[in-house]
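tmp note - superoxide dismutase
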Amino acid sequence: MAYEPKKFDHLLGTPGFSNQLLKNHFSLYQGYIVNTNKLTNLLNALAKEGKTGTPEYAEIKRRFGWEFNGMRLHEYYFENMRHPDSASPALDKKSPLFKKIVEDFGTYENWEKDFKTVGVMRGIGWAILYFDKMANRLFNVWINEHDLGHLAGATPLLVLDVFEHAYITDYGLKRVDYIEAFFKAIDWTTVTARFL
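out:
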């Protein structure tokens, strides 16, 4: 079964994100799908040939996490952005997610400040609000690249791409301004549903 790209064209016209930036980003996302499918096919072929103990198989297997997570994280990212014509409600203060944020961070403002701080850290990667169900705790986490730093078993709730391709076309090196635009485009309904 091959992975198919999801359509995110409804995000075109989102304030703070040029259509050129979004189209470039969609193309990059589709490249991760193409490569995930290619690697899956290569791994299957090598397995059928009995070559699972070869260096080729090992290197392709290592690369698979990069391509797959690149695909999936972009899906989470685009899905937690709202359609530009839809209402842009803040996170509902009566929602279980809001209450959990306050419980774990003291206030919503403390959480937001911490999340944005993670997002502006030097380097390429992702800022992710994770929920660890086993510990019943939220974490703002830096993910280096796609395949390093994930919290095993934790659920990604809010995903922010902070690779340069996500903002440099519109914001140059002003990542802070990009993050502000992103916060105005968060689809809190989707983020909250991931928590429930």
